[in-house]
Amino acid sequence: MSDSPSAPFGRVLTAMATAFKPDGSVDVDGTARIATHLVDHGHDGVVVSGTTGESPTTTVAEDGEILAAVKDAVGDRASVVAGVGTNSTAHSLELAQQAEKIGADGLLLVTPYYNKPGQAGVLHHFRTVAEATGVPVMLYDVPGRTATQIALETYAAAKQIETVVAVKDAVGDFARGVRLREMGYAVYSGDDVSNLGWLAHGAAGFVSVVGHVAGDQLRAMVDAWDAGDHAEALAVFTRLLPAIGAVMGVPNYGATTAKAGLQLLGVLDNRTVRGPLVELTDDEVADLRASLEAAGLL
């Protein structure tokens, strides 16, 4: 039986979509409905205002409304992590302090994107934001979106900050992840296709996107792994592959596919996204439906 690694925010989390009304304004009730759906289906945590939540398009005030609505909806039964990472340290600081006031259980802090700071700048950003609150921090390493990878030396320095406890890894270097665990990080898979591989390398859990439509299955995979039934964990993962491919396979994946999936499940009544994203076409939704059916999710 594998030891269950320390999981400060839970094992199964999803980076939640933010519901919008057809006019593009935030749908607070719809967003709360997504959170409730996730926690009713295998999740013990959610992340709001990450990339899948379309955080580059939401204001500070909207991020506060989203977090408060989700805390009210599920905060008594799941951890609620607030995405506060932007490419402006002052903006991230403001979001982090707001999230602490509203009662976030954790902060997700991505490497500043587009600016391409050096490692000294990355560390300065992490330190400034993390030291401004008492809320536990999950760093987020996703060079495909940020153009910057966090160096091991930067991880080692950041781990000296008392509140920095975890990392969401979308680099996919399993050996490096083992080294991060040795530094004391709880490592979360940040890429659904790598979820099972990360469990084998000692990860705490997942911050998923496919979890919007497959939370119970992700929970079953973790439970099988923890019980030592690795063949069953692989079987669950294998059945999910069509869904993972569909949710992560279109150019606009993430918010667009998550919302379309939630619409197919009846959780949302629209799949509105904010520019520069565009919602899935009817043909793309038909392909998504076929893949979710193939995975046994519809």
TrEMBL record:
- GO annotation (BP), single: lysine biosynthetic process via diaminopimelate
List the catalytic activities from the record: L-aspartate 4-semialdehyde + pyruvate = (2S,4S)-4-hydroxy-2,3,4,5-tetrahydrodipicolinate + H2O + H(+)
Keyword field contains Ribosomal protein: no
Could you tell me which Gene3D superfamilies the record lists for this protein? Aldolase class I
> Which residues are the active-site ones?
140, 168
What pathway or pathways are given for this protein in its record?
Answer: Amino-acid biosynthesis; L-lysine biosynthesis via DAP pathway; (S)-tetrahydrodipicolinate from L-aspartate: step 3/4
Decide whether keyword Nucleotide-binding is in the record: no
Q: Which residues form a coiled coil?
A: none
Enzyme class, UniProt record, top EC level = lyase
Q: What is its EC number?
A: 4.3.3.7
Annotated site location: Part of a proton relay during catalysis = 51, 114
Q: What does this protein do?
A: Catalyzes the condensation of (S)-aspartate-beta-semialdehyde [(S)-ASA] and pyruvate to 4-hydroxy-tetrahydrodipicolinate (HTPA).
Give the family, as the similarity comment puts it: Belongs to the DapA family.
Please report the name of this protein according to its UniProt entry.
Answer: 4-hydroxy-tetrahydrodipicolinate synthase
- Taxonomic classification: Bacteria, Bacillati, Actinomycetota, Actinomycetes, Propionibacteriales
User: What's the name of its gene?
Assistant: dapA
